[in-house]
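ok so i was messing around last nite and threw this chain in just to see what happens. nothing serious, just curious
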Amino acid sequence: MRYIILALSLLLAALIIAAGCAKQPNYLGAPPGLPKSDDASAYIQVTIYYPDKDALAKETHDIPKKPDRIKAALEVLFENKPNNSNINSVVPDGVKILGVKVEKDLAIINFNRNILLFNDDKKGQDLLLSAIISTASDAGRGRIKLVKFQVEGKEKGQIDGRDVQNFWGDVTLKQQPWKI
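result:
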C-alpha cells in the first residue's frame, strides 16, 4: 500500500510538472506587431566621416534601410553623435538634409538654412566640407564623382540676411561642384 501511494504521488507530481511546462508564461512572449530587430535586411551599413579637431574620424553605423542611402548617411552625420566618445565632432547643430538628388555622377545636397550658421576657422570648415563629401561619396558606392550644395534649393541669393553663395566664408559655393 505504501508503494502504491508513493507511485501515485510521483505520478501526480509528474503530471503537475508536465502541465506547468506545456504553457509558456505570457511575459516571455513579445507583443504582436513589433518590428523584428533581427531582420538584417532591414538595415544598411554606412560609413560616416566626422570632422574631428585635426582630421576626419571614420565610423561605421548600422541604420534602418531607407530608399536614399546618401541622404540617410548624411542624416547620421548631422543628427547623431559619434559612437566613439574620443571624437570631438564639429558638426553644427540643427542642420537638416532636405534632400539629395543624383544626376549621373553629380550629387546635389540640399541643406536647411542652419548650415549657414556654421562658424569655424578655415581648417574646421575644410574638415566639415571633407566630412560631407566623403560621407556622400562612400554612401554613393563609387557612382558619385562630383558634389554640389544648395541651401533650401538656392545656390545664390540670401536667406535670413546671409549670402548663400558665400556659405562659410572660406568655403564658398562659387567653388562647386567639388570633385571627389
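not much to say yet. Residues 22-31 have pLDDT under 50 and may be disordered.
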